[in-house]
Amino acid sequence: MMSASPEPLATSPESGEQRAAISAADVQRVMIAPNPVIEDVRLSRLSEPFAVLPFARLPASQVITPSKPGNPELQRRYIKEKDLTELWAKITELQERVVNSVRADRTNTDAYQRDLLYARTLLLESDANFEEAYQVYYLVKADLEREVRVAADIRRYRLPLVIYHLVWLVVTVLAIGLDERFRALIPESVSIMKLAWPPILSGVFGALFNGMMAIHEHTTIRRDFDPMHITWYLLNPIIGGMLGLVVFILFVVSASTFTANLITRPESELQSSLVIWLLAFIVGWQQNIVIQLLNRFLKSLTPSQPVSRPSASQLTSAAEPPRQP
Length: 325
Hints:
The protein is mainly alpha-helical.
C-alpha cells in the first residue's frame, strides 16, 4: 500500500539561490513512499523470503538541487542553445513515453511526470541548471528501463515458476500415500523416525505456500522480480522438507529428555502428531525466521568478539620507527 504525505518546502529566505531552489522544488508537492506501518501488518511481509526492503523512490527535487551560479563564460562556451533545445525535446519525448506506459496503478506515472516537469522548471530558471535537468531526465529514463526489464523478466519466469510449484504440490500430495513404504525403510532401532514422513511433507507444503506468496508479491504487487533469486524458488520446497524433518527431530529430542527409551518405543508413543505437522508447516512457510533463530543460537554458543576499528593515532604510532636514544 502507498501513502501520500505533503512534502515540506523550505521556507528560510537567506539568499536568492535558495529562493531559486524553492521555486524549482515547488513542482514536487507530494511524496509517494511505502507506508511502513501498513506494510508491517500484512501477512506477506511476515513471509517475505528476501531481506531487501521495498525501494522507496524519492522525488527528483530531493535528489537533485539547482546549481549555484557558475562561470558565465564557461556556460556560454559549453551550453549552447542547440543543447537546450535538444534536451527540451528529449524531455517531451520521454513524457509521451511515460504516458504510453501507464498501468492501472498510475503512481509511478504521476511521479515521473512531476520529475520531468521539475526538469523543465530547472531549464526555465537558468541555463546553469542544464546538467541537473539532464540528470533528472536520465533518472526517469533509468526507472522506465528498469520497469521494462522487470516486466520482461516477469513474463519469462512467472508462469514456469508457478508450474514448478504446482508440480511440487501434486507430487507432495501423491507422496502422502508413500507413508507406509517410508515406515518400512526405517529400522526398528529408531522406530520413532517412522513418524517423520508427514512432518517432512508438511514442511514442503509450507514452503510451497511461501513460494506462491513470494511469486505473487514480487510479480504482481511490487513488480520488482529479480531473476537473481531463481535459485531460492527452485530450492524452496527442498529446504522446507528439510526444516520439517529438523522440527520433528527437535521434538523427538526434547520429548526423549522426559520419556526414557522414546526413540526405540513404538511410534504410537509419540503424542500430538498434528501439532508437529502444524509446526513443520509453519517452519516451511517461515524459513527466514527459523534460519535467523538458528543463526542467533549458533552465535550464542560461539560468541564472536567485535572487531574494533583502530584509531588514526594508533595507526600513526604503529607506523613510526623507534626513536634512537
